[in-house]
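Retro notes
What went well: the complex prediction finally ran end to end.
Inputs used:
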Amino acid sequence: MPAFPKKWLIVLLVLGVVVPLLQPVLPNLVSDYRLFLVSTMMIAAIAVLGLNLLTGFNGQISLGHGAFYAVGAYIAAILMDQANFPYWATLPFAAVLCFIVGYLFGLPALKLEGHYLALATFALALAVPQILKYKWLEGLTGGVQGIVLNKPEVPFGLPLSEDQWLYYYCFIVMVFLYWAASNILKSRSGRAMMAIRDYHIAADTMGIDTALYKTVTFGISAAYTGIAGALSASAIAFVAPDSFNFFLSIKFLIGLVVGGVGSLAGSLIGGVFYVLVDNSAQALSTFVKNDLGLQFDLSAYTVFGILLIVLMYLMPMGIAGGVYALIRSFRRAAPVSPERSAPAATRKPAQAGESH
Amino acid sequence: MNTNRRGFLGGVSAAALVASSGAVAQKKYDEGASDAEIRIGHCCPYSGPASAYGVIGKLHQAFWKAVNDAGGINGRKVNFITLDDGYSPPKTVEVVRQLVEQEKVLLLYQTLGTPTNTAIHKYVNQKKVPHLYISTGASKWGDPKHFPWTMGFQPDYHTEGAIYAKHLLANNKDAKVGILMQNDDYGKDYVEGFKEGMGKEGSRIVKHVTYEITDPTVDSQVIQLKDSGANVFFNVSTPKFAAQAIRKAADIGWKPTQYLNNVSASVASVIKPAGFEASQGILTAAYLKDPTDKQWDESPDMKTWRAWMDKNMAGANQADANYVFAYCVSTLMLETLKRCGDTLTRENVMRQAAGFKKLELPLVLPGITINTSPTDYYPIQAVQLARFKAESWELFGDVMHAESS
């Protein structure tokens, strides 16, 4: 895992806190809309982080994280709608319930590896929007109509706009979750997770309870994604089955692969990438059509696809991995005293550890 | 551009009103309008699972380009900004915020889809941005009391369902109804309206089956309906499934009275694939002229439309009724903006949109007009029943108004 230099981390954190406060000075640059956009990026980054814990650090592939995202969003929405919960109080419930759902799903997943697991999770992603429409659940979920919610209100009479507050709310949750994830990964459990990814049988032989670690990782990963879903329910103030179609899961996976499998910083980049590409795909399409004169309609997914292929050529380890490799080769070129390099390039692609 | 007399008169009287209020040379603008341009925001799915609706957005683009090429509206060019929301509500929230806050549009129109519009309903009304003639048939959009900035366009599904029920009760004394429904908001709206129209005769619905839009066929559902002994078939499905259902019913020798929802009334994409023979006698309710129905070939508005399509959207499939729909709505938007004159404020846009009296639009069935008022936010509420005969729809009965609902 490419270590993230501490001073950069502090700079980023300070920027993250200060920039939204510049709104009165730079109203056009730091507009409410942009803050909202950054909030959606942070939410996506949390979801991608959840998927990364599972795929990047534990070697289990999921094509169905949109399902956990949906469950988290609906739990939050139902609690706010039916039980009048304040929006912030829904997060722990979403996390716990998604953990349970993820843990339970992780049990049969133990018997499935590689592609088979991918297919099982794929089924989950397809099933959840249908289940949400099911007539027995309609009273709670609102069926196809979904649930309309209120946006988070600014607490304690702080002099912030709704979007500024939403930004800080997401920011705080994201920083906390990244901090927690980094601690999990640094601990004994984290090393066990990665050992399972790297070589399943060896991990077993060393006395790691692989079944337990795999199911719990599934649970934690689902909880992270569920929290992201709950945040999105507050941010969008509406949930409906159409919000959680299968492409959502695919986008998380693309975000993960592009950002960097098995890298915390990569998850953040993945979240930003996924929102940015989604937004700029259409601009790119009109550019190609009008300015280059090519008669192509590029949909967002086409752009995703092309970028993905290009990135796989240029940066097979994702953007985080690529940047890290660049920095290293740069340092190597410069005459620097021999320093202990970070755990060397033995990081395998996630699925390598899954083979028998 | 074909002006009609009523529209012209309306325009004159609106101009007279403006003049009499002492604002002769006074130009008034809100965000998104100026001497040079009017900014209009729009979003619909150009990509993703619902991208078949993207053609509506494409026609709008061509429409405003043609308007601009012809000199614009009262000397102003229309800057039509359309974005892709992929039919995903969170994405719609994002692009609509972009349109309102970054692009600073004067108004939004024809945003497409029920869940997507639900997601932005509160927001646009808080921001007081006109949200006009939106592209969905749900019944909840005409609520000026709570949402004074949102207005629908087409007859809502609920009303249409109720109209079928009324016709059924008047013509069939021992009906046993079987319903095939797409399992989403659109299907439910129809069926709820139908049930409401049935009133206390609701027990006549003997079977109610659903399908998902991802299903390959509806064969087994149709067989279930036949086995229930139903002698009336209410077909609430989108074109592909409607054609399958009509075909299947004929194949298994089930001959009920069939009510087909307007969504699937296209001759080219439903009736023809299902087979003309299997489709004789099917009933539907219409408000637009079907471009594949030969009886309209000689009507002047259809000819104008075809010429317009040839010129501005060469190569587009003119059998696609979505193009008729989009052209018709865009004409209404154009008329609204013309009537705004030099007072391009958001408030005035809503006032004009809510002030249509018997306006005739091209490609709408004869006898159906646009009527709105500050308390009536349903522009088209009338439909006419039609029966399929030989190779086209034969209109019968009177234009039915549903202002009561």
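What we learned: Residues 5-14+26-154+296-374 of chain B form a domain with the Rossmann fold fold (CATH 3.40.50.2300).
What to try next: split runs per interface for comparison.
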